[in-house]
Amino acid sequence: MKEKYTFEYLEAYLDKELSAADQAELERDLQQDESLQAELSRHQQTRALVQQMAVEETRATVGRVFQQQKAAKGRSSLRPLLRVAAIIAIVLTAGLGYWMSQGSLSPTELATNYLEPFPDRLTTMSGEVDEVAVAMEAYNGGDYASALTAFENIPADHPERVLIDLYSGIAALEQGNTTHAENKLVTIAKHADYGEVASWYLALTYLQQDQVEKARPLLQELDAADAYRASSARELLQAL
Fold first, then answer.
1. In what helix (H) or strand (E) does residue 148 lie, and over which residues does it extend?
2. Is residue 224 part of a domain?
3. Which of 35, 51, 197, 199 would you label with 221, given CA atoms 20 to 30 Å apart?
4. Domain span at 56
């Protein structure tokens, strides 16, 4: 199994957060690598168990609340309590409470809530300590100011220029430099391999700039294509 297939990488695959190129590569490897198949199966089983535990905990919580309220208010209030309990269970198990809570947030606040750094796809490709490794060390450590400076000092003809510019754009967005982020991400959004990823962060950049009408079509495209962060794009569209 390739070293790049870390816990976080496989989780990103299951969450449909990989780029089209990374997803295709992993699925090709899955056909030939039994150890990778076993590892992915363990991830799926663990996720299913966690989900089931969450559902059971939700049912138990709703049951306790129902019984407490029933004892306090008497049988005359039984029917309203049943309706309330059903609503609580649906909201908690489906995650709709989070969606509903987003409705009063501004586009900038929504973008901030959904902004997470894209996982490292550069230093997993090579063990060399070079200018890219230095930049990614800062990026992975959350030092986006240093990372941004380091990215800009990497030669323009570097073979991983597209990914470098992607991380540079994301680092700029994390720093609040939306102009730099937009300049980097607009071009990469047209790239065959990382276009979906860049489109997601470009949409967040537009929301940070309060340009909802520019962000909306990007989110719609991600949702319609079931592409990178499609479920998050769908949630944002409902909240806007």
1. helix 144-152
2. yes
3. 51
4. 35-94
| Threshold 0.90, pTM exceeds | no
% pLDDT > 90, the chain: 41
78 with 136, same domain: the answer is no
Contacts of 79 by beta carbon, 8 Å cutoff, 6+ apart:
none
Cα–Cα distance for residue pair 223/58, rounded to 1 Å: 29
SS3 letters for 18-79? CCHHHHHHHHHHHHHCHHHHHHHHHHHHHHHHHHHHHHHHHHHHHHHHHHHHHHHHCHHHHH
Q: Residue 81 and residue 84: Cα distance in Å, rounded?
A: 5
In a domain? residue 52: yes
In a domain, 81, yes or no: yes
Residue 21 domain-assigned (yes or no): no
| Shared domain check, 183 and 123 | yes
Contact, 164 vs 122, CB < 8 A?
yes
Same domain flag for 142 and 226: yes
Residue 140 above 70 pLDDT? yes
The predicted-structure confidence for 88-111, as pLDDT tens digits, reads as follows 555 544 444 444 444 468 899 899
**If pLDDT is split at 50, 70 and 90, which confidence band does 221 have?**
very high
Segment (H or E) for 199: helix 195-208
Closest CA to 35 of 59, 71, 2: 2
